Amino acid sequence: MIVDRDKCIGCTLCKQDCIVSDIEMIDKKAHIRNLTCIKCGHCIAICPVKAVSCDDEEEYSMEEVIPYEKEDFTIDADKLMNFMKFRRSVRLFKKDEIEEEKIEKIIDAGRFTQTSTNMQDVSYTIVKDSIPELRRMTLGTLNAMADKMLGSEETPKHLLKYAHKWKRMYDSFVENPNGEDKLFFKAPLLIIVKAQNEIDGGLASAKMELMIDALGLGTYFSGFFERAAAMNPKIGEMIGLKEGEKIISCMVIGYPRVEYKRTVPRKEARITRI
Questions:
Q1: With contact defined as beta carbons under 8 Å apart, do 135 and 159 qualify?
Q2: Which residues on adjacent β-strands are paired with residue 124?
Q3: What does the pLDDT read at residue 58?
Q4: Which part of the chain has CATH 3.30.70.20?
Q5: Which residue among 99, 140, 156, 244 has the highest number of C-beta atoms inside a 10 angstrom radius?
Q6: How far apart are CA 116 and CA 157, in angstroms?
Q7: How many whole angstroms separate alpha carbon 245 and alpha carbon 86?
C-alpha cells in the first residue's frame, strides 16, 4: 500500500484504523511500512482525500473502488429483514439458462465478503455442462455409502431413512438418467464454494445466497453432495479442490418454477444474556 504525500493531510485516520499497526506518521504525513500489512484496504476506504492506493495493481485494481454515496449504499433495515424472511430453499426450477452477468455478480458477492486476516482463501467452482457427470459420481458414492450403512448394525436408526432414500435416488438414476432428479433437481447451475477456513466460506456462501435471491433466482444448499464429496476424493479432483481446502457449500441455482406468497413462522430465538 502506498500514500500520495502530496494529497495526505495528516489526519491520522488511517493510522488509527489500521488493525496491524503498519502505519506511522513521518513529518505529519502517513507512511505505510508494508511490514505487517494484510491489504485489507481500510486505509483506502477511510482516507478523506483519496491519498492511499494499492501498490499491487495486478491483484488489486483501484478501478474497483467506488466512492460512498448514501443513496446507493444504504438498505432499509425493515425491507432487508423482510427480504431475508421471505427467502425459501427452491427445488423447482425452470430450464432457462442463467446469464453470465448474473453469475459474475453472485461470485462477486462472495469475493467481497470479509475473510479472516484478509486471507481471501475462498474459491469457487462453476458447474454447468458437467452437471450430469457430477450427478452420476455423487449418486454412485451415496449408493455405496447407503450399502455400508444398511449392512451395519451400528448405523443409528435415524440415519437409515437417508440410506434408503439414497438407494432409491441411485436406482432411479440407473433406470433413467434423464428422469426424475432428486439431487440437483435439473437446475442449470451449481456453484461450489471451497475454502481453507470454514467460517470464511460460510460467510461467502451466505452473502452469495442473498445476491442469488436479489437477482430473481432461487437456490438450495445440497448437503447430499457435500456428504458424498467428503467420501470420494475423485469428486474433489473433478471440482478442482486444492490441498488444504474444504468444500463449504454446493448451491443448486436456477430460475424458480414456484412462487411463494408469504413468509413463514420460526421458533423464538434462543438467547443467553450475560
A1: no
A2: 193
A3: 80
A4: 2-64
A5: 140
A6: 39
A7: 32
Neighbours of 66 (CB within 10 A): 8
DSSP structure string for 191-205: EEEEESSHHHHHHHH
**CA–CA distance, 157 with 162 (Å, rounded to integer):** 10
Whole-number Å distance between alpha carbons of 125 and 205: 13
CB 48 within 8 A of CB 81: no
Q: pLDDT tens, 11-47?
A: 999 999 999 999 999 999 999 999 999 999 999 999 9
Measured CA to CA in angstroms, residue 247 lies from 119, 124, 191, 230, 240 at distances of: 17, 10, 11, 8, 10
DSSP output for 145-160: HHHHHHT-TTS-HHHH
DSSP state of 256: B
205 within 8 A of 146, measured Cβ to Cβ:
no
Residue 57 clears pLDDT 90, i.e. is over it: no
Instruction: Round to whole Å and give the CA distance between 27 and 9.
Output: 11
Q: Collapsing DSSP states into helix, strand and coil, what is residue 250?
A: strand
Read off the pTM. Answer: 0.92
Which residue ranges does the chain devote to CATH 3.40.109.10?
75-274
Question: Are 113 and 203 a contacting pair, CB within 8 Å?
Answer: yes
Report the CATH architecture of 2-64: 2-Layer Sandwich (3.30)
Composition of the chain by helix, strand, coil, percent to 5: 40, 15, 45
